[in-house]
Write a structure and sequence with these properties.
- By secondary structure, the chain is α+β, with helices and mostly antiparallel strands.
- The chain has one domain.
- The protein is 20% helix and 38% strand.
- It has a six-stranded antiparallel beta barrel with strand order 1-3-4-5-6-11.
- The protein is globular and about 40 Å long.
- The N and C termini lie far apart (81 Å).
Length: 237
């Protein structure tokens, strides 16, 4: 591919990414009709406060102090492993100097570990990703996308404005639901596959998964299991 074509490809990515984020965040209610069963939002769209003026990015830093700032969105299916997600990134030195900018795209869903749903999260924060109706607290379902905690690992390609592309593992953690103690920090981590550079310190930035299908939280599952055992036990006259 010529340098001219590469430049146009990157330009198209820069233009398409904000559009993708806006589309995903504004139309999540419609997304539950397609094959995706989760939506990923990383430091973008309705997760960002308007007063942040573009400083909403999720940040992962290395031991020497330089870091990557990422934002983006996408959808994925845990059964088929299909995934569509993209965003923007900036690599900054420890003194704040921007070393490179570009876009990132997901090439593979490696794994997803759900912590369960957290139905009241968006309502408490007065965030509305799309038209929806929340069910009462005791019901484990909703007609709209449900906030869900979990840890996702994606293989991504980073395409800088200049220079060669890079491949890395992106870990995104949302500490909602039944969160393991060692995964209580919200944010991202980035591990490059060539060279092994790790950006494993979650500095900031919000991450959210939205379940597009009914998913029972661990608490609800436990309650249902206890109820089922009670029904199965023989009664004594």
């Amino acid at each position: 591919m010529s340098n001219r074509n590469v430049s146009w490809t990157l330009l198209a990515g820069w233009l398409a990414t904000p559009t993708l984020v806006m589309f995903l965040c504004a139309g999540l209610a419609r997304a539950q009709d397609n094959s995706a069963n989760y939506t990923l939002v990383v430091a973008s769209g309705f997760l960002c406060d308007p007063s942040e003026s573009g400083s909403c990015s999720a940040v992962a830093k290395s031991p020497n102090g330089d870091g990557y700032k990422l934002s983006g969105a996408g959808t994925f299916n845990t059964q088929t492993k299909s995934v569509t997600a993209a965003g923007t990134f900036a690599h900054e030195a420890s003194n704040g100097t921007v070393l490179e900018r570009g876009v990132w795209i997901v090439s593979q869903l490696v794994s997803f570990d759900s912590y369960g749903i957290a139905p009241d999260t968006l309502r408490r924060q007065r965030v509305a990703p799309g038209p929806q109706q929340f069910a009462p607290k005791r019901l484990p379902m909703s007609s709209g996308p449900m906030p869900t905690g979990g840890l996702a690992v994606f293989r991504i390609r980073l395409l800088p404005i200049s220079g060669a592309s890079k491949t890395a593992l992106l870990q995104a953690n949302c500490p909602l639901g039944d969160v393991p103690r060692e995964r209580s920090v919200e944010g991202i981590r980035l591990i490059f596959e060539k060279g092994g550079n790790e950006f494993s310190e979650e500095v900031g930035g919000r991450v959210l998964f939205l379940s597009m299908q009914l998913e029972l939280s661990p608490t609800v599952k436990s309650s249902q299991q206890e109820a089922a055992r009670g029904l199965a036990e023989p009664t004594h006259n």
